[in-house]
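Teaching assistant here, posting this on the class forum so everyone can see the example we discussed in section. The complex has two components, and the goal was to see what a joint structure prediction looks like when all of them are supplied at once.
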Amino acid sequence: MRIATWNINGIKARLDNLLLWLRQTQPDIACLQEIKTTDSSFPRERIEDLGYYIETHGQKSFNGVALLSKMRPDDISRGLPQGGNTAEDPQARFIEGVYSLKGRAIRVASLYLPNGNPVWDDSAAEITADTAGISKKYAYKLAWIERLYHFARQRLALEEDFILAGDYNVIPAPQDAARPEQWQQDALFLPATHKGFRKLLNLGLTDALRAVSNGEAYTFWDYQAGAWPKNNGIRIDHMLLSPEAADRLRCAFVQKEIRGWEKASDHVPVWIEIAE
DNA sequence: ATGCCGGGTACGACCCGA
């Protein structure tokens, strides 16, 4: 079974690329991020014509995530639980599907973790020992990682195949950036960001790409400043696996060449193969 | 280079991304 994740940076602008990719790569489940549209405006027909079920959690203009799957999902949930806080998250960044694979349940989530920049600005958040002077955007990112931690801890207790896939906006280590010195003060690389990501991994999740290779595996190249021709990339799209899913991991790939396509997204797809 | 490109909104510039 092939499961993929791709931040497509706008479903309407990327529909032809998405259809071409679906035909070529044939993912059984595809996690999309930054669909940048509402559920009712999502262009369903040509994707359904390729044999995919579509589940979306969208909003107007920004964010938005989706799950495409060749099998019908048994259950779908939208939004990351707030953990004690009943307020709805106004940003559409999380959707989870439950699928049946030869009698087993497999849970796959598509997530778009907040960017968090600028880290320091005038809209200082609540002052605490850990967060003095940081922006509301960075505070939201750190809180979102903490919410994801609590969610993952609950899911891991089920001891099922569970895959957390998406755009994490986290560069895990210096080797995951062509120019790590450029990211030292960035929300994608700051110590507090790494601390949250490590806490998540330390629950027992496996970073699928790093489980199969220590080599260069960038997934994002900025549109600006010739980042793509210079290969000034970063690895920020990840697939984290429960121990049950990691046991079945066969391979993991980054489809780097797709960054060179006409009208490319600034992210490329990542996919894994899981033994059935 | 706190904005070099590109998408969305909506039709003139702004907001946003990483």
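For the discussion questions: The first helix of chain A runs from residue 11 to 25. Residues 9-10, 12-14, 34, 36-37, 60-62, 115-118, 121, 169, 171, 183, 186-188, 220, 222-227, 234, 236, 263, 266 of chain A lie near DNA strand B (CB under 10 Å from a C1'). Think about how each of these relates to the inputs above.
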